[in-house]
Amino acid sequence: MIRPDLADFFRGKRALVTGGLGFIGSHLARELVEAGAEVCLVDSLIPEYGGSLRNIAGIEAGVRVNISDVRDEHSLRYLVREQDFLFNLAGQTSHLDSMRNPYPDLEINCRSQLSILEACRHHNPGVKIVFASTRQIYGRPLRLPVDEGHPIAPVDVNGINKTAGEWYHLVYGETYGVRVSVLRLTNTYGPHMRVRDARQTFLGYWLKQLLTGEELQVFGDGKQQRDFNYVDDAVEAFLLAAAHEESNGRVYNLGHAEPVDLLSLASLLVELNGGGSFKTVPFPDDRKAIDIGDFYADYGRIERELGWQPRVALREGLGRTLAFLREHGPAYWDG
Predict the structure, then answer these.
(1) Strand order of the sheet with strand 250-253?
(2) Residue 150 main-chain phi, psi, to 5 deg
(3) Going by C-beta distance under 8 Å and a sequence separation of 6 or more, which residues neighbour residue 81?
(4) What's the pLDDT at 75?
(5) Residue 295: CB partners within 8 Å, gap ≥ 6?
(6) Which residues of the chain have a pLDDT value below 50?
(7) How far apart are CA 263 and CA 269, in angstroms?
């Protein structure tokens, strides 16, 4: 449920969400609709990327849906007009796919980002943009926790292109005065996440395997540490960044104060599910080549400047997600 102060701020505002039928975008849409905003969702509905009309079940009357690809620069020129906010979540997010076929990643995460920014510069220069970046741009950490001053050293094509997309936004902010804010997301999870396979997130696939009676596979020794954000916390960060002018030109890490190693995560999932099993297996070569080892972020900057902090504990968030998938799971892994 959206915070009362944020609900007051967004009431009557116009918001465009690219990737709006996807996992995070659809949750953001629900919060904006609850606040009384006028919401337009743009999504290509390419099956591999996770967007689905089922993600907006119950709020259909409160949103306008435009089935369009962000690679279509002509539609973007129309869609950005008269918007107060642009939540830019459209992207190709699979690290493996970016290595196997780098060109779609380049088109979506680089060229399309320039098209979006050019559309805003020429047709709506007053819009406020919040861009969804990723912790993947840091590559293998030199120190932990990773703060925003850590060197940028991506280990895959996706990380390179997301870095470029992020910097395009910052350059347009600096050069043309477009108000932009960047959020570097860590592992976001929750209802509506993609669970069909492990192309975008291992955690989603683990949840699917757990509920269908398959054994979870933990790559390597399982001691790799990660931090995870429940989707409601990530959405609140987007809303705070949009609502605060002091976020303009700023880059913020998200993260969580309770990182967990992957063996402990698998054990917790089995416990919450009331059954299941897991085992360690050697890394597949293609995944080992781009694995970043331990990663957890320092989110102190966004906490100090915007008052954001994660509120949902890992155990609670995983429990909510399992409950959702017990009821709706087949539609997400078979549909």
Answers:
(1) 63-67, 38-43, 14-18, 85-88, 128-134, 179-185, 250-253
(2) -65, 145
(3) 123, 124
(4) 86
(5) 135, 138, 141, 144, 146, 186, 225, 226, 227
(6) none
(7) 10
Only one residue has tokens 């970016």, namely 98
Q: Are 132 and 180 in contact (CB under 8 A)?
A: no
State the residue for tokens 């892994």: 333
Residue 47 has which token pair?
Answer: 């099956």
State the Cα–Cα distance between residues 52 and 25, nearest whole angstrom.
Answer: 11
Nearest to 23 by CA among 314, 238, 311: 238
- Report the C-alpha gap between 88 and 198 in whole angstroms: 23
Q: Which of 310, 291, 226, 298 is nearest to 263 (CA)?
A: 226
The pLDDT value recorded for residue 99 is 85
Per-residue model confidence (pLDDT) at position 284: 81
- What six digits make up the tokens of 88? 């830019």
Domain 4-190+228-256+296-312: give its CATH architecture.
3-Layer(aba) Sandwich (3.40)
**Among candidate residues 45, 126, 42, 130, the one with its CA nearest the CA of residue 78:** 42
Give the Cα separation of 127 and 119 in Å (integer): 11
Tell me the angle at which helices 314-333 and 262-273 cross, rounded to the nearest 10 degrees: 70
> Which ranges of the chain would DSSP assign to H, the alpha helix?
4-10, 23-35, 73-79, 95-100, 102-106, 112-123, 157-176, 202-211, 231-243, 262-273, 285-288, 300-306, 314-333
Distance CA 19, CA 30 (A): 14
Q: Is the distance from CB of 102 to CB of 139 less than 8 angstroms?
A: no
Residue type, 213: G
Quote the pLDDT of residue 198: 64
Over the stretch 277-313, which tens digit does the pLDDT of each residue have?
A: 999 999 887 777 778 889 999 999 999 999 999 999 9
Segment 82-96, tens digit of pLDDT: 999 999 998 877 777
Domain boundaries, the chain: 4-190+228-256+296-312
Q: Are the C-beta atoms of 128 and 85 separated by less than 8 Å?
A: yes
